[in-house]
């Protein structure tokens, strides 16, 4: 059984994002980059399925600049068997990524695609759903539990009213939620082994995909600075400020 795991290179979640001088995007020139946390969960789930003897091969795929090879090596250090880089300097939007992944799915014919439900940089939460539509595969989003057996995937997902359980035939697309698992740390021996694992490079042109952006970002700005709090002497003063300044009562 072959599993495809898309992984994305994003600004590390511990880094405070800054807007660039031109006000057109987040400044990543000197920011620490890492694998998207939801993608780490997807990799972990695939590795656990392999450890259980269900999965035989895990393929990590990433699209973006050359430095995405670092993200792929991280995925391979966590347990992926090989990597595929779709190299491009174009700004990739969810539909373009979904089309690139659909092309990889066509070439690799995986039995399962597991990807993070969203990336922490744009929070789009679209790629998994678009990929399922483009490949005509069943999908289960926001998975908190995955069971693979008898050629089917049984997925438990969190909804507003509680938990929903879906059963799907394979191949299928699953997007991961935070509570699916807790990703492991890569050990030094596995990091060294990852450097020798195969990593293929291709381009959107080679896959026959047009990744020209369809949306244009007009302006990016920092949120307004929050005013400092004050200490009031009594409840009467607090109520007065709430009525006249906060306008909540």
Structure description:
It is a single chain. Helix 2 packs across helix 5 (188-194) and helix 3 packs across helix 4. The termini are far apart. With 249 residues, this protein is an alpha/beta fold. Helix content is 29%, strand content 27%. The protein is built from seven helices and eleven strands. The mean pLDDT is 91. Strand 8 (152-159) and strand 9 (162-169) form a beta hairpin. It has one domain (2-246): 3-Layer(aba) Sandwich (Rossmann fold), CATH 3.40.50. The chain is globular. It has a nine-stranded mixed beta sheet with strand order 9-8-7-10-6-1-4-5-11, with helices on both faces. InterPro entries: ET-Flavoprotein_bsu_CS, ETF_a/b_N, ETF_b, ETF_beta_N, Rossmann-like_a/b/a_fold. Keywords: Electron transport, Transport. Residues 23-211 form the Electron transfer flavoprotein alpha/beta-subunit N-terminal domain. Heterodimer of an alpha and a beta subunit. Its cofactor is AMP.
Q: Can you give me a brief rundown of this structure?
A:
It comes from Formosimonas limnophila. With 249 residues, the chain is an alpha/beta fold.
Q: Structural class, from helix and strand content?
A: alpha/beta
Q: Kindly, what is the distance between the CA atoms of the first and last residues, rounded to a whole number of angstroms?
A: 61 Å
Oligomerization status of the protein chains? single chain
Strand order of the largest sheet: 9-8-7-10-6-1-4-5-11
CATH architecture: 3-Layer(aba) Sandwich
């Amino acid at each position: 059984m072959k599993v495809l795991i898309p992984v994305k290179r994003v600004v590390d979640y511990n880094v405070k994002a800054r807007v660039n001088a031109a006000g057109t995007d987040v400044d990543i020139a000197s920011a620490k980059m890492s694998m998207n946390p939801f993608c780490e969960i997807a990799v972990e789930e695939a590795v656990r399925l392999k450890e259980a003897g269900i999965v035989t091969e895990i393929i990590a795929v990433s699209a973006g600049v050359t430095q995405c090879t670092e993200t792929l090596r991280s995925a391979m250090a966590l347990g992926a068997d090989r990597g595929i880089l779709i190299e491009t300097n174009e700004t990739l939007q969810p539909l373009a990524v979904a089309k690139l992944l659909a092309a990889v799915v066509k070439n690799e014919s995986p039995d399962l695609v597991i990807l993070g439900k969203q990336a922490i940089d744009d929070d789009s939460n679209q790629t998994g759903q678009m990929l399922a539509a483009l490949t005509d595969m069943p999908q289960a989003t926001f998975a908190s539990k995955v069971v693979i057996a008898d050629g089917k995937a049984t997925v438990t997902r969190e909804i507003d009213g509680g938990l929903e359980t879906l059963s799907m035939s394979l191949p299928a697309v699953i997007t991961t939620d935070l509570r699916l698992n807790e990703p492991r740390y890569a050990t030094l021996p596995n990091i060294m082994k990852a450097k020798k694992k195969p990593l293929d490079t291709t381009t959107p042109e080679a896959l026959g995909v047009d990744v020209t952006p369809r949306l244009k970002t007009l302006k990016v700005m920092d949120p307004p600075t929050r005013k400092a709090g004050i200490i009031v002497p009594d409840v009467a003063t607090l109520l007065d400020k709430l009525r006249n300044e906060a306008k909540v009562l």
